[in-house]
Amino acid sequence: MENLEKILSEHPFFRDLDEDSLNLIVGCASNVRFEKDDMIIREGDKADKFYIIREGSVALEIQGPGKGKITIDTLSDGEILGWSWLFPPYHWRFDGHAQDRVRAIGLDGKCLREKCEENHDLGYELLKRFSQIIDQRLQATRLQLLDIYGIPS
Amino acid sequence: MKGSMQPRRFRIDKVYWETDDTFTHELIPIDEGRFFNFHPGQFNMIYIFGVGEIPISICGDPDINTRLYHTTRVVGDVTKRKQHLKVGDLLGIRGPFGNGWPVEKAKGRDVVVIAGGIGLAPLRPIIYHFLNHRDDYESITLIYGTRSPDKILYRKELEEWSSRLDMDVSVTVDAAGRTWKGPVGVVTKLIPRIISNPDNSTAFVCGPEIMMRFTAVELLKRNFAEQNIFLSMERNHKCGIGFCGHCQLGSYFLCKDGPVFSYDKLKSYLSLKEV
Ligand SMILES: Cc1cc2nc3c(=O)[nH]c(=O)nc-3n(C[C@H](O)[C@H](O)[C@H](O)COP(=O)(O)OP(=O)(O)OC[C@H]3O[C@@H](n4cnc5c(N)ncnc54)[C@H](O)[C@@H]3O)c2cc1C
Ligand code: FES
């Protein structure tokens, strides 16, 4: 636990979070490991966790029309995987598969949701931090849609 | 300026198709003086006899002056005709033109090269230069983004550079199938992962204008100084030597004052509206 607390407190996502809130989060955290090609999350499955990737990379995939699986994003060291645990109906919208061996900290979404309901300060802090990540991903997706390497018309 | 309006003839010695719409010509000078010296980041005006003339960056090794390399993406009339030229055909070349990348200013510093799409072509000479003079520079990072794995240029060089211990190479694509094992996402997403010290880093960026705009914003967020971010601009060119005004951008003639500028000089011309 001590180790988890240290890792989480040093992670930029939890930077400057007060000690009580951090302790509550540590109570919902565990170390996890996935082997290459393991499915970490599967579209449609219940989203009851999110992950802080410590090492390795995860490909986010969707089924393209008639094209098989298409990777639309990859996440690696230090990045956060998953926010569907925050929003009903709490189901994953993508597949996430390990491109190589992945070490991560898994955070139990249900446990965190309950703690956020009881402690709104914690809930607000977490939502603020997740909103930033969602905003960054939205910007990146917009750039992908713009085809920034294409020929200007 | 002597001879800058008069094309020299070059013979196509090899044609390499890099992707379905992009090819490289390896050329040999056949007129007076069998050598062609250039500075990384400079370009030539290439005349396809009877068709027209277009600016294309020089993309070979600046330490090799007996062969000239140009990578061209097929987009319109002249490039469409250029793609049909064969080994042995002749081209007219004026150049080299432009200021090129300020490699001297980056000596003793970390260098970060960021390319988008065809923008890797004007940057390839600077990578050769850094590697040819490896001791003059600290870390070398290359980040290259392109639409999909089949659009990746210079695969052989990228593999070679990736295998070096003294250079860090990342290639990212916008979308890919399962066979692609590298990062997916736009090039700007990889910038926060650059392990370098912005105070002692110089960035060299080339790609479509929109890609350069967002890359510059991301570098500024990482505390790069505006004068340490260099961008290569493309505009329509005609004379290539500052006479005709075709390439004018504000108070600059891109062919003469550019195509490379530091971000502080260009920022007022690059629209920074949010997406
Ligand atoms: C300094 C400089 C260096 C360049 N280096 C290279 C290079 O190394 N490799 C390469 O493939 N191209 C390079 N270009 C771009 C190249 O000059 C143009 O693609 C070419 O002139 C198009 O001619 P065209 O007759 O085939 O197309 P056109 O018929 O003139 O145009 C066809 C389409 O291409 C678009 N287009 C035209 N010029 C450009 C441009 N500069 N950038 C993006 N889209 C354009 C037009 O908007 C139009 O939609 C460079 C341009 C400059 C100014
Ligand atoms: S192309 Fe004529 S002034 Fe630049």
From TrEMBL, chain A:
Location of the Cyclic nucleotide-binding domain: 13-82
A family per Pfam: cNMP_binding
InterPro entries listed in its UniProt record: cAMP-dep_PK_reg_su-like (IPR050503), cNMP-bd_CS (IPR018488), cNMP-bd_dom (IPR000595), cNMP-bd_dom_sf (IPR018490), RmlC-like_jellyroll (IPR014710)
SMART domains linked to this entry: cNMP
Superkingdom of the source species: Bacteria
The protein's name in its UniProt record: Cyclic nucleotide-binding domain-containing protein
Species of the source: Rhodohalobacter sulfatireducens
